[in-house]
Design goal:
CATH class of the largest domain in chain A: Alpha Beta
Largest interface: A-B, 58 and 58 residues
Distance between the termini of chain A: 37 Å
Number of helices of chain A: 10
Strand content of chain A: 15-25%
Helix content of chain A: 25-40%
CATH superfamily of the largest domain in chain A: Alanine racemase
Oligomer: homodimer
């Protein structure tokens, strides 16, 4: 089937580009001896996770326990969940998962660590725990090396847990000094830090400059998006995800309406102007969205589309687009090769 | 099961409130003789659509052909799709749908109308077509009464179509004058306007003041959200959708992190500050989101939550939250009564 026969809106994934993106980052990280542990939140597709592993990734990263279960069911056996997992329901599921794959999680509080220990020791399993620390994103993470060291000591002391190192997101200039200071504090207790996991796509090509990070978690790199291009980490030619839409209305000379809106692209502006980059009309601006309509200003375009014309959009943020579609279409050039269900979509818990 | 036993994040729907919301709008529209045609894009759940019909709605509104197919499969036989439907694949599905239910669609261009006519006449079915016109939202819709009249004449003239009136979104002060002028133009051709369909939740209680609109399409009213409350159309006590989340991290004295972010609430700010209203901590602000984390500022709260505590969020925009979850949980008070799959979720085409 030709790509032009697909009904719209549809997410197409250029398989050649996905393969090239996977290979490029792997080669780079291999060159510098950095372990590659891609984050599957971007694609949520076991088949792509397996491509990443086959290329040399040491394991994968998930953000939700439910995502990890889907990936484990698909045969993937080395998973890091970069999340504070808590509550009886999730802890029970976690111990079941830990009994069948190599599982690591992260924690930034005594509450999380004690919950993990109680559940794992009761179930007779061991789970690796990494201490999450703050590197500037102001999300989760302990704030000081002293807190990191205290939490590492607790993990070492409690049953059912294995201290697996430190984790942060994204890796920044603050990462190295934080790790060094934590290492010094833990050396007094003869506790070594087995690995330091950093992450992020925008600055992935700087990973070799952060000497303390031994592992890198990138997610978006596999597809790329407008934000990644704006940051300079990828080119539009490398971006593998596109959303094909149709111009369903031209109510005024300058305005065009697409059959995709916030339920197609999400509302993530990601700091950019407009809601995507239109390949056929690079001077057009998707200046607003309704749920099922994209509102486009074509006034700066020399040629303007007709009603019924198909236009191709590179979204601002690819991860949230994956999360809106039940399936994506894999293509090579203009030929449809496969359809992948977004299997871990909706695994919200 | 008690609501407190549900794992998080989870969308709960207060069934008493849904029933009250459905009844309240129905009673109001009945009082003024306005046909009620609720928009199911908010809930995407056939069971709720049936509740709306049972209460007195004349039919339902869908935004996507795929949504209408799901609703028709569930036995709903009177559907308006407020969208320009085009392209061979969709037009073929449309004629199949028109052969089994009472179907109406909208159009704002000759291109759309001719496509509908060609498909319907070839398939030997008749589809009702309403002309969509601009009432100030600057999305789709013809811009002038002259354009509306010309399109109505074309619909009347072409085979396979039935001219079913005018449609706009949302109803505003511009609606009445536009309709009157179009009616005058069409009277010369002995074409009457069988109905005028307006819509919107924020100004639904003004529907009786727009004399020309004979039908009202509201979607959000069934659940309500922070935006609807901000507009004054509903109170927080009436809002039926809540998202229960857990505080998974308290990295600093003022910051808390929830286990729900842009993949839970969407990024729709809807003109409001912050990403939701927290029932237990009304002075807290969800000032930022990552995909799976909500970043909360608790500095203005006298009491602050502990890690592991559950907090309840009323989202800014309920329709886009429904679109992120595979299922919602129906409750009465604190008792879980049922689980509804969001059946029309993902019906993107």
């Amino acid at each position: 089937m030709n790509i032009n026969e697909l009904d719209t809106p549809v997410v197409v994934i250029d398989l050649d580009k996905v393969e090239a993106n996977i290979k490029k980052l792997q080669v780079y990280l291999d060159k510098y001896g950095i372990a590659n542990r891609p984050h599957i939140k971007t694609h949520k597709i076991p088949e792509i996770a397996r491509m990443q592993l086959k290329a040399g990734a040491k394991g994968i990263t998930c953000q939700k326990l439910g995502e990890a279960e889907v990936m484990a069911d698909a045969g993937i056996d080395d998973i890091l969940i970069t999340y504070n997992i808590m509550g009886n329901a999730k802890l029970q599921r976690l111990t079941q998962l830990a009994s069948r794959i190599k599982l690591r999680v992260t924690a930034d509080s005594e509450f999380t660590v004690r919950g993990l220990s109680d559940a794992c020791s009761a179930a007779g399993v061991e789970t690796g725990v990494m201490v999450e620390f703050e590197s500037g994103t102001q999300r989760c993470g302990v704030q000081t090396p002293a807190e990191a060291a205290a939490l590492a000591r607790l993990i070492v002391a409690l049953p059912g847990l294995r201290f697996d190192g430190l984790m942060t997101y994204p890796t920044t200039e603050k990462t190295g000094p934080f790790v060094k200071e934590t290492r010094t504090l833990l050396a007094a207790d003869n506790i070594s830090i087995p690995r330091v996991s950093g992450g992020g796509t925008p600055r992935m090509w700087e990973a070799h400059t952060w000497k303390e990070a031994t592992e890198h978690r990138a997610g978006t790199y596999v597809y790329g998006d407008r934000r990644t291009v704006a940051y300079g980490a990828m080119t539009y030619e490398e971006v593998a995800m596109r959303v094909i839409t149709t111009v369903v209305s031209r109510p005024t000379p300058d305005r065009g309406i697409l059959d995709g809106g916030s339920k197609t692209f999400s509302s993530d502006l990601s700091g950019l102007e407009g809601h995507g980059y239109m390949l056929e009309y690079p001077d057009a601006t998707i200046y607003a969205q309704s749920e099922e309509h994209g509102h486009v200003d074509f006034s700066r375009c020399r040629n303007q589309p007709q009603i019924g014309e198909r236009v191709t959009v590179i979204p601002n943020h690819t991860c949230v687009v994956s999360n809106l579609f039940n399936q994506v279409v894999g293509v090579r050039g203009n030929t449809v090769e496969l359809i992948w269900p977004v299997s871990a979509r909706g695994a919200v818990q």
